[in-house]
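Q: Start with the shorter request: fold the first protein.
A: Done. Sequence, then structure:
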Amino acid sequence: MTSSTLTKAQLRASLTPVVNQGLEAARHAPSEEAWQLLERAHILSQRFTMAHVRVHVAMLGFGWRRSDRREIVGQLTRI
């Protein structure tokens, strides 16, 4: 393992604040910043099923609040 490789525990530890930030931001206002946080959380959560599903649910809610039909349909197919 190289110094740039993260262990699963390190990845989870770095993931949790990002997911929480994305979820919180998306709950309050569906802004571009909130979407970027959700996208980052989506990428980081891919190795953790439950966290990944939570991010997809948050993305669905984001799409719903923005009345974005395409995002809603896209997230429903992923959940």
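Q: Next, the second protein, separately.
A: Sequence, then structure:
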Amino acid sequence: MMKLTNHAPNCATLTRKAQLAADRLRRIIANAAFQIGEGRSAVHLSVSVGVAVSDAGTTPDLPLTQLWSCADQALYRAK
């Protein structure tokens, strides 16, 4: 979770931070072995993440549905 203040960085900086956080999460999950029941082999998972950032100062009227669509498009590019 990122805390935004009145002195928040620009969208490019926020986007890069979000991408780094998403990649960190992806690597953590990829490197983990998940035990799904006793006596069964562990499974490995992969995760794809889409990132979209809105700057309320420059795009205050951006509908949440449009931001969600941007994140969804980013998710498909990540796959």
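Q: Describe the second briefly.
A: The first helix runs from residue 11 to 30. DSSP finds two helices and no strands in the chain.
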